[in-house]
Amino acid sequence: MNLITAPRGTFDLMPPQAIVWEWMESTIRKVFLSYGYGEIRTPIFEHTELFQRGIGETTDIVEKEMYTLVDKGGRSLTLRPEGTASVVRAYIEHKLYGQAPVAKLFYIGPMFRQERPQAGRFRQFHQFGVEMIGEKSPVADAEVIILAHDLYRQLGLTELEIHLNTVGCPACRQEYKAALTSALQAVADQLCPTCQQRLVRNPLRLLDCKSPVCQEVISRVPSIHHYLCADCRHHFDQVTTLLEKVGVKYKRSDKLVRGLDYYTRTVFEIINHDLGAQNALCGGGRYDGLVAECGGPAVPGVGFASGMERLYTTLEQKGKIPELPFGPQLYVLPLGEELNVVAFEIATVLRRQGFSVEMGNGAKSLKAQLKTAHKSGAGYAVIIGEEEWRERQVTLKTMADGSQKRLPASGLMEEIAELVSPRLIVPLREE
Ligand code: AMP
């Protein structure tokens, strides 16, 4: 029989790694909450039309990468490839614009794109991100960029580069698009086949191409900064001033456009060069036309999305994953099968007090049980021997140095409480 494996581009998160993810997620939540963002959990699938309208028909995601299915009712549904469109849909559906001038929302969860899997690129991956909807001031752009940067710093990452650009507004971008198209048409034969198509359909997207030949051509095309209208230029200058005011370093990257159609004005990425080809930890920017495009009022928005997998790899590369509690704190070992019930009772009492406890099996030798206890990472073993138990005594063994102490079972809890703190918050009383 064929072995059934996880689908290509997906992976299982196994218990030791899941603990690190849990730590990353709880740090992320804390930082987002402290910046005043509330969590939103939207469905994993949405009507396909949402992404077609919200992300843009000519983007790689919508053209090639969506997992779309038709359900039994004949509806076209798509596994969400990103978070912003869903958040905007929920913002409109729940009329958040009627509740407060600005909505600040964050999300964490799986996303799905049928891309070619490679290092740092999966088909099911996880993103966390924020959306601030309703604020047009450049202060919002700066807040979002600093939030992303501070979040990584909270996790211990310091040497990351912020790449910053503006893609203007629909008016000045139109002029830039025309200038770009005419500059590129003259050298179209030097472009990769994908870019030759992009030139016709969406020339701005061409600036994103990673092919060295296209990169060389792109380095010679005009910069959008020569085409910005006065308002867009002022907005960009204010964002940079605000970042400088609080000492956040950034690199101006005038060819950064990002892969999604909805951006207006500010776009940014935070880069870890050690990640290789897929080196963007996060990307974001302003999307002033998106809410209206999705059927809501004409309100502006700004946000970012960051990948959990790339964050995990970065933390691992830079040695920033802390020692996290994994495995039991205590191991209860009965010496002989007839003491299994006693061991079970002791383990249960300890567990109800919030300690993390595993127990051995008295049918096995002390040596075998101690080996398992060592492997589990438990700090202490409670050994219950036949002779000792006749006097209602047990032995408490410190696994690190092998030292042990005999004590009455009635004093065990007190002794343990001196050595380790319970992992659960609320101790349960006996039933
Ligand atoms: P995007 O939604 O394409 O702007 O991507 C934002 C961030 O999500 C990127 O910087 C990555 O960290 C992450 N990301 C996007 N696509 C993938 C993928 N296929 N696999 C893993 N992470 C991804």
Automatic annotation (TrEMBL):
One of its GO terms (cellular component) is cytoplasm. Its main location: cytoplasm. PROSITE patterns: AA_TRNA_LIGASE_II (PS50862). The keyword Membrane does not apply. It is found in: Cytoplasm. GO terms for molecular function: ATP binding; catalytic activity, acting on a protein; histidine-tRNA ligase activity; transferase activity. Residues 1-334 form the Aminoacyl-transfer RNA synthetases class-II family profile domain. SUPFAM superfamilies: Class II aaRS ABD-related, Class II aaRS and biotin synthetases. It catalyses: tRNA(His) + L-histidine + ATP = L-histidyl-tRNA(His) + AMP + diphosphate + H(+). Keywords: Aminoacyl-tRNA synthetase, ATP-binding, Cytoplasm, Ligase, Nucleotide-binding, Protein biosynthesis. Its EC number is 6.1.1.21. GO terms for biological process: histidyl-tRNA aminoacylation. L-histidine binds at E82, G83, T84, R113, Q127, E131, R258, Y262, Y263. The keyword Protein biosynthesis applies. It comes from the Bacteria. Pfam families: HGTP_anticodon, tRNA-synt_His. Homodimer. Belongs to the class-II aminoacyl-tRNA synthetase family. This is Histidine--tRNA ligase. It comes from Capillibacterium thermochitinicola. The lineage of its organism: Bacteria, Bacillati, Bacillota, Capillibacterium.
